[in-house]
Design goal:
The chain has 11 helices and no strands. It has a single domain, classed as Hypothetical protein af1432, CATH 1.10.3210. The radius of gyration is 17 Å and the shape is globular. The protein is an all-alpha fold.
Length: 202
């Protein structure tokens, strides 16, 4: 079995990371379960100003995506989009994007990486000095309409204590399937392809 040092991992290319997966790196094999464990733990975390937990928000988001007929990339992204909010509140979107980047379409990653700016239009007026039009800086980006739709359909409306979402166990097989893919595979990343949210819905 080939040995790859942590120095090589740190400075490697996408191909190097894919090779690590081919070698059945033990950290990769357990990624999905660690993420599910963290989401479960977040069932104890309240969201300031909202009558639901962080897990509740994640499950509402994923359930709405699933009910809309979205594919696994979008459902898992919706489930994980705020997983870093408690640890990295100012850049939680980028944290979540780095978690999913090797395993989902490039378009999905871009939306998750920038959804924080797009959410500003819904709540920046509650925060002193924040810009509700933060998303305007991306108005010419091909993924802009997709990010607008993501936030409207599967984020800003997912704080309802009366919403009947699916349990975490329902989404676990999808998380395992997505994180069981070959990292950075061309047919998964589909670089440069922008389909828009509507194309992912049934």
């Amino acid at each position: 079995m080939t040995t790859v040092s942590f120095t090589q991992m740190k400075h490697g290319t996408h191909a190097d990371y894919a090779m690590l997966q081919e070698l059945e790196h033990p950290f990769h094999a357990k990624t999905a379960q660690r993420l599910l464990n963290e989401l479960e733990r977040q069932g104890q975390d309240s969201l300031d100003g909202y009558p639901i937990s962080r897990l509740g928000h994640a499950l509402q988001s994923a359930t709405r995506a699933w009910q809309d007929g979205a594919d696994d990339d979008w459902i898992v992204a919706a489930l994980l989009h705020d997983i870093g909010d408690g640890l990295a509140p100012q850049n939680h979107d980028r944290m979540a994007a780095e978690i999913i980047r090797p395993f989902v379409r490039e378009e999905v990653t871009w939306v998750i990486e920038h959804h924080g700016a797009f959410q500003m239009i819904y709540y920046a007026h509650h925060l002193h000095g924040w810009n509700p039009n933060e998303r305007d800086q991306y108005s010419h980006h091909p993924c802009y309409p997709t990010a607008v739709d993501f936030c409207e359909r599967w984020d800003q409306n997912c704080f309802d204590p009366n919403y009947k979402n699916q349990p975490l166990a329902f989404f676990a097989p999808k998380v395992h399937a997505v994180f069981g893919r070959k990292a950075y595979a061309d047919d998964v990343i589909r670089s440069g392809e922008v389909l828009g949210l509507g194309s992912a819905l049934s």
